[in-house]
Amino acid sequence: MTKDVFDCMRESRSVRSFKPDPIPEPTLTRILEAACWAPSAGNLQPWYFFAVKNSKAKQQLAQACFEQRYVAEAPVVVVILADPARSSERYGERGAQLYCLQDTAAAAQNMLLAANALGLGACWVGAFDEVKVQQIVEAPPRLRAVAIICLGYSIEQTPGIKERLRVAEVAKIID
């Protein structure tokens, strides 16, 4: 049973404390499938995902994330990479510089929502040494590390609904 997508959006938060319990393979596969369902410019799907379970590799990733220890403690760490060349083939420089990043961000958000719906905690990590991360996962040189998603069962207490700006403060409807 999964949660409603609106509940997932409202309830989701960055989780940085995880139980050591492994994530079942079918659950991890569903989360990766959700990432693949994200929209992308021209349906090019310029992404690649490295799901890291190896303890040594996770330790190295934590170091590459400027010593964010919870990265090593998460049962699975997904490194999301973009393929700028794939987007560039159709959209030129704008595809390489922007569209592939937007597309991988959409995939990351799908991953976060799917994790929440399946009862997992997650945290999007953006602070890392891109080159070191790419070396750790042995990514082909054409790929660019864009985001890291830590996944696992949370040991944190669930706080109330998070504060958000009202729609009227951030949106304008133009008729």
TrEMBL record:
GO molecular function term, any single one: oxidoreductase activity
Record's keyword annotation contains Flavoprotein: yes
InterPro entries: Nitroreductase, Nitroreductase-like
Nitroreductase domain boundaries: 11-68, 70-153
Swiss-Prot/TrEMBL cofactor(s): FMN
Keyword Flavoprotein on entry: yes
Matches recorded under Gene3D superfamilies: NADH Oxidase
N-terminal signal peptide: none
Domain of life from the UniProt record: Bacteria
Key words of the record: Flavoprotein, FMN, Oxidoreductase
Family: Belongs to the nitroreductase family.
PANTHER family linked to this entry: NAD(P)H NITROREDUCTASE YDGI-RELATED, NITROREDUCTASE
Protein name stated in the entry: Nitroreductase
Organism: Thermosinus carboxydivorans Nor1
Classification lineage: Bacteria, Bacillati, Bacillota, Negativicutes, Selenomonadales
